[in-house]
């Protein structure tokens, strides 16, 4: 894609992202798409075997997705879950070889294909968690670990200086992996596992 065309596409993505944020700030969680720095930080902590899948929740307009693919993640091993149909359309245009599911991330056991469930090494979440009720957080965590393979983990980014999930209440072990200081706003990446399956 020529640089001018790419720049136009990115500008259109930012406009769409901002409009979706205006329509539902709790669901979108940020005014602008994630930066390449945050995408690279997330991608640097992806752990998978050759046959494993990676599932990205709340893929938005694909900022993190681009980082995952640029880091070498095969597109046929990536599944994007996005609730917003307009953003799903953008994702389908950007990543024609990636499987995209327009659906509710709390229902992963229902919406993910059977050949993917149980073969997922990591669930990567861009969903805004801190502002959501505990019931929503629990539903996302339960859905994620229900489809992860044994030993799988969640990666979650947040704009807050604290854990984006209440680890003890959700039965999780969490570790801060790093900060993308140049992201607007600065963002931290956390890795979560079930407390009984420490890694």
Question: What does the model show?
Answer:
The protein has 199 residues and is an alpha/beta fold. It has one domain: Rossmann fold (3-Layer(aba) Sandwich), CATH 3.40.50.150. The chain has eight helices and seven strands. Strands 3-2-1-4-5-7-6 form a seven-stranded mixed β-sheet. β2, α5 and β3 form a beta-alpha-beta unit. The mean pLDDT is 87.
In brief, what are we looking at here?
The chain has eight helices and seven strands; from the N terminus they run αααβαβαβαβαβαββ. The protein is an alpha/beta fold. The protein has a seven-stranded mixed sheet with strand order 3-2-1-4-5-7-6.
Fraction of helical residues: 25-40%
CATH-scheme architecture? 3-Layer(aba) Sandwich
What is the end-to-end distance? Answer: 41 Å
Quick one: biggest sheet? 7 strands, mixed
| CATH classification, class level | Alpha Beta
Superfamily at the CATH H level? Vaccinia Virus protein VP39
Percentage of residues in DSSP E strands? 15-25%
Tertiary shape: globular
- Class inferred from helices and paired strands: alpha/beta
User: pLDDT average, as an integer?
Assistant: 87
Number of domains: 1
**Tally of separate helices:** 8
Low-confidence stretches: none
**CATH fold category name:** Rossmann fold
CA-based gyration radius = 16 Å
**How many extended strands?**
7
Helix and strand pattern: HHHEHEHEHEHEHEE
Strand line-up of the largest beta sheet: 3-2-1-4-5-7-6
